[in-house]
Structure formats: C-alpha cells, structure tokens
Amino acid sequence: MDGRKRKTSLLFVMNHLHCGGAERALVSLLGALDYDKYEVDLLLFKREGVFLASLPPEVRVLEEPCAYRLFDMPIERALGKALRSGRPDHALARLIAGAIIRTEPLPARSDQRIWRYMAWCLPSPAKRYDCAIGFLERGPIYYVLDKVKAERKIGWIHIDYDRLGMDPAFDDPYFGRLDHLVTVSEECAAVLKMRFPRHRDKIRVIHNIVSPGTIRRMAEAETGDLYGRREGETIIVSAGRLHPQKGFDMAIDACKLLAEQGRRVRWFVLGEGDERERLTKLIRERGLEEQFILLGVKANPYPYMRQADIYVQPSRFEGKPIAVDEAKMLGLPILVTDYRAAGGQIVHGENGLIAAMEPGAIA
User: Fold this and answer.
1) What's the pLDDT tens digit per position in 221-275?
2) Within 10 A of 208 (CB to CB), how many other CB atoms are there?
3) What stretches of the chain adopt beta strand conformation (E)?
4) pLDDT category, 54, cuts 50, 70, 90?
5) In the chain, which segments carry CATH 3.40.50.2000?
6) What percent of the chain has pLDDT over 70?
7) What percentage of residues in the chain have a pLDDT greater than 90?
C-alpha cells in the first residue's frame, strides 16, 4: 500500500455531447473537478458531439451501448439489424417502441413510455460507483436508476419541468429512488417542489459553472472581423439548438419587422438542430436571406458573441441558459423573452431587457 487515499469514483450519463446548454454545462463541470480526488467515467448513449474534444483528458469515455442506436434509426432498419445480430428480443422491444411513438402525440411522454423497452436492450456497466449522475432528464436519469450500481444516485434537470410535456406520474417513483434531484435555478426548483411535493427535500439548486476568465480569453482568440461588418449596421447574435423551444421562428419575424422599419440589422444564430430546414424555409419566405443567418456550430462561439452589438435569447421556455450568463460576462447588451426563469438572470432595465414572447416585443 502506498498510503494514498482512494479516489471517489463517479459516473456521468448523458445522451451525447452535441451543442446545447446541458452539454456545455457538463463539460464545464468536468473541467472544474479535482482529478486527484475523483476518478470519472462518462457514458454517452451516442459517443459523438462537438464537445467531445473539450473533455478533460482524465475523463474516461465508456463504449457507447450499441443497442441505443436501434431506437434512433428507422424501424425497418432497426429490426433488420437486431435480427441479423441474433437479438429477436431487441427487435421486439424496438417494435413495441415504434408502436408507442406512432400513438403518443407528445414526444416527451413517448420517450418516457419507451424507456422500459429500451432498458431491456441496454447493458449495465460492470463497475460499481460511489456516485452515478444522470445529467439530463428522462433517459440518463432512468438509466442511472435502472442499470447502474452505485452507492448514491443523482438526477439533473436543466429546464422548466412543466414545459417539457412529461408525465409527472411516470417520473415520481423514479425521483423517489434518487438521493438528490438537482436543477439549475431557483425558479426550476420551485416548479419541481410544486410538482413533486413528497420529494421536495431532495431538490437542490446548483448553478451552471461558467468561468469568466476562460470565456474572455476564448473571446479574444479571433481578432479579425468575423461578420464583415457594414457601416451603420447593428449585429445581433443568439445561441442555442435549432429547436422550437428556442423561439428562433419568433426571432425571424422580429428581424422582418426591424427590416420593414428601415433598421440596418443582421441577426446571426450560433447552433444546430432539427429545425434548420424549417427555419431556412421561413427565412426564405420572409425574404431575409441576407439579414438572418444560421451560422451553425462553432467550436469557439465567444469571438462571435464579443463582436456582436446585442445578444438576444428569444426562448419560449428555459432552465437557466448558460449563453445569457456568458453574454453578461462579455459585456453585451442583452434582451431575453419573459420565460419563467428570465428574472433569475436579468433585472429589467438594469442589466438587460425582458420582452414579451412575441415578435413585436422582441423587435
């Protein structure tokens, strides 16, 4: 024995590391851990995403559970793959999941209902951990509770639970098995305590870790004019997944109003997602191809934020968006919509503006 104290073993579970606030929050948290004290494994259902390259080298990324992909591909292909692999049980689970997806109109509730069939197919890690953390609602939390051996188990909710469209009756017994249920803002905690009163003593608030020094340093990494700025124009920037939650359709209509008022603006969005095709069509319909630009994912978004004139968060609902805190650290004027947690980050008229959730108010 060399006398060194045993490290605490941690397992984090996440869907993937594509661009998103929760993914960025996880990478920031992993970057803040003391690896002299902690031994960290990370299980991603899909081992992919732009933030993979930002993980600390001490984090061991586990092999992804291949069966998860069966639930992330067309059913005909999934059934063929399962049967060729000699897993008729996996084929049956995917068949049942497909029926649920077709009949359940709410995607969040569909995810909940298919979990038990997905769980049939997913293996458990061989290792026993001191603590396992499901770092996102639904699958990662359910996986930690149903498949992982650990002394303590923690779930993490990054958003206003009431706006997810989930079934609290499904989650209630799961949350009852957690040692702690963490969320990112006091407003989100209040919603959880109201919705799950018998678990209120387990609910904790841990704000997302944001390093001002790191963000400012990264923001200075690019010194050239990233936008090709034109004389007299205003550059607006927003960041987030291209998802209905983020309200970029409202931003497009707000940009149209600004253009009709004769304002010289260009609005840039940092992020990617399933809404790209729909938003691109809407931009074209509004005749804003030169004014509203989807930039996609940038490994370092901070120079784009620093060089903008205004940061706008046009979301329909949020937990506590990291990008707003980052924009504050970069000294940008900020406008956010009046989602429930907005007041936790912005004091209207002091460090930003809070607008009604409609294009006219955003403009």
Assistant:
1) 888 899 999 999 999 999 999 999 999 999 999 999 999 999 999 999 999 988 9
2) 20
3) 8-14, 38-44, 60-61, 128-134, 149-157, 180-183, 203-205, 234-239, 265-270, 292-296, 310-313, 334-337, 353-355
4) confident
5) 8-65+123-205, 212-362
6) 99
7) 84
Pairing of strands 128-134, 149-157: parallel
Residues 169, 129: Cα–Cα separation, whole Å: 28
Q: What are 157's two structure tokens?
A: 């909710």
pLDDT at 1 exceeding the cut of 50: no
Domain spanning 8-65+123-205: CATH 1.10.1660.10? no
Whether the per-residue pLDDT at 188 is higher than 90: the answer is yes
Q: Does domain 212-362 have CATH number 3.40.50.2000?
A: yes
First to last CA, the chain: 66
Within 10 angstroms of residue 2's Cβ, the number of other Cβ atoms is 3
Q: Per the structure block, which two tokens stand in for 177?
A: 């098995």
Q: How far is CA 252 from the centre of its chain?
A: 22
The number of angstroms, rounded, from the C-alpha of 147 to the middle of its chain's C-alpha atoms is: 23
234 within 8 A of 263, measured Cβ to Cβ: yes
Average pLDDT over residues 104-108: 92
Cα 239 to Cα 80: distance, rounded to the nearest angstrom = 39
CA dist., res. 164 & res. 169, Å (int) = 14
| Mean pLDDT value of segment 61-74 | 94
pLDDT at 194: 97
Contact 116, 139 (CB under 8 A): no
- Residue 313 near residue 237 (C-beta atoms within 8 A): no
Q: What are 266's strand-pairing partners? A: 235
Residue 357's closest CA among 274, 230, 244?
244
Global pTM reads: 0.85
How far is Cα 195 from Cα 183, in angstroms, rounded to an integer? 14
